[in-house]
Design the sequence.
């Protein structure tokens, strides 16, 4: 690692690396305003991760909101169409309510959006970039993939009222087999469909192992098409040797009013929640009057504070002390020599005892003297 990179926090290093990665694939940076009119978010509240939105009144009397989401603003302003795809990435802070705490938090995000005709290649490109993004953070990662077409296809067969459908989806996301069974029993769902729902919720593992099982659960064309798309993705991943660490998990479910196809979440060791999430959300573009498809993902950099929270063994490589009347030019030259050799250095008159160092030097009349050196 370069000396200047050592001064950056983990999330800052990852941010720079991800931006470089996205630009390699032709994505351009999108910069958005900190504020949007509240009505815009209120109309699309179900797309947001939290219904709580931080608002204030602007100087012109309009109700504004601190941005709780980046994707909505990108879609609102996109020029992407089926004829001309738009690839954008962003590095932004969003403001959301902290779950169960009654307070807002600032969340650092880096992500990308592909808006245009989302064909098989576009889907694969975004999945591969999600995989590469996780690898930038840690080699110990997992990318879990689901398909809303598969879930929606089975829900169509079950044909429950909207409120009961939400209960089933909640149970699927929690892998709550007993809950699925109870809701199905309450609503007179056929035993065969109940078993398929239970099988869907419990299915987890590598794509190669689980796709045959998913295929056995199919009971309509929509589900079959979803499995076929997942099989094509597996085939392409295997050709590039990228199928490892990619699992199938239908318990990943999002709002069916917005999400239409592949959805996914990424995890790394040391962080208990997903650090990356994304998917295909064509229905959002339809709602906003755009003639295009869309797929993208976000990486939640604020979670890296927990990942990189181990206390540093040292504050600085070298603590350089000097006596009263020391040669200032020689002192500056010594500090430069140390930094040129890739060390971090702190120069001060006294050792206050609150700085952890590897090496303690002192500038005296006869030159630099090693006072202490820790192994």
Sequence:
């Amino acid at each position: 690692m370069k000396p200047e990179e050592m001064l950056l926090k983990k999330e800052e290093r990852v941010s720079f690396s991800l931006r470089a990665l996205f630009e390699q694939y032709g994505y351009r940076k999108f910069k958005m305003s900190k504020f949007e009119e509240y009505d815009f978010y209120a109309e699309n509240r179900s797309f947001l991760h939290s219904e709580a939105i931080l608002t204030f009144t602007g100087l012109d009397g309009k109700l504004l909101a601190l941005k709780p989401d980046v994707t909505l603003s990108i879609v609102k302003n996109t020029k992407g169409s089926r004829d001309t795809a738009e690839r954008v990435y962003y590095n932004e802070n969003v403001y959301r309510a902290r779950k169960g705490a009654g307070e807002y938090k600032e969340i650092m995000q880096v992500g990308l959006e592909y808006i245009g005709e989302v064909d098989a290649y576009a889907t694969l490109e975004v999945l591969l970039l999600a995989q590469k993004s996780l690898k930038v953070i840690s080699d110990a990662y997992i990318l879990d993939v689901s398909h809303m077409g598969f879930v929606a296809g089975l829900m169509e067969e079950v044909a429950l009222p909207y409120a009961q459908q939400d209960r089933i989806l909640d149970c699927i996301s929690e892998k709550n087999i007993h809950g699925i069974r109870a809701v199905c029993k309450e609503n007179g769902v056929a035993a065969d469909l109940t078993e398929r729902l239970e099988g869907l919720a419990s299915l987890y593992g590598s794509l190669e192992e689980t796709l045959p099982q998913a295929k056995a659960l199919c009971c309509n064309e929509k589900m079959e098409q979803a499995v076929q798309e997942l099989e094509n993705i597996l085939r392409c991943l295997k050709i590039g040797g990228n199928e490892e660490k990619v699992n199938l998990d239908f318990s990943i479910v999002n709002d069916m009013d917005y999400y239409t196809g592949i959805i996914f979440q990424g995890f790394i060791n040391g962080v208990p929640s997903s650090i990356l999430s994304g998917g295909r959300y064509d229905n959002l573009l339809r709602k906003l009057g755009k003639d295009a498809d869309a797929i993208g993902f976000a990486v939640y950099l604020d979670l890296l504070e927990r990942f990189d929270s181990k206390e540093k063994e040292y504050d600085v490589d070298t603590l350089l002390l000097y006596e009263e009347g020391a040669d200032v030019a020689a002192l500056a030259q010594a500090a430069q020599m140390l930094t040129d050799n890739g060390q971090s250095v702190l120069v001060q008159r006294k050792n206050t005892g609150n700085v952890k160092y590897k090496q303690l030097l002192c500038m005296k009349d006869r030159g630099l003297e090693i006072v202490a050196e820790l192994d």
